[in-house]
Amino acid sequence: xxxxxxxxxxxxxxxxxxxxxxxxxxxxxxxxxxxxxxxxxxxxxxxxxxxxxxxxxxxxxxxxxxxxxxxxxxxxxxxxxxxxxxxxxxxxxxxxxxxxxxxxxxxxxxxxxxxxxxxx
Length: 120
Description:
By secondary structure, the protein is of the alpha+beta class. The chain has a single domain, classed as Thrombin, subunit H, CATH 2.40.10. The chain contains two helices and six strands; from the N terminus they run E-E-E-E-E-E-H-H. It has helices spanning 87-100, 105-115; strands spanning 15-20, 23-32, 36-40, 51-57, 63-74, 77-85. Strand 4 and strand 5 (63-74) form a beta hairpin. The chain is globular, with a radius of gyration of 14 Å. Residues 3-98 form the PilZ domain.
């Protein structure tokens, strides 16, 4: 079976929050990638294509923030695509991914792929 995923996913333990329609939901990260995140969220009311803000706390001083779109869900597991973010968040995301993959060059290649206009 062919793997259709283009971007590496890492299992990582950070606190995450989803802000949606004026409410903040605590979330557990299942996996994280350059293009998005898979979260477990209890009692989340979002539907496919809804927009929200995801904050991932790396440390007391580092919080990554992403404007995101809900692209799929099954039960309490929700997959979000990162739509926009600030440069600091992207930089921290890159470092987190590089630190947690076997070969950090993979993340560099994925960033190049994104920078050249590919998104899938």
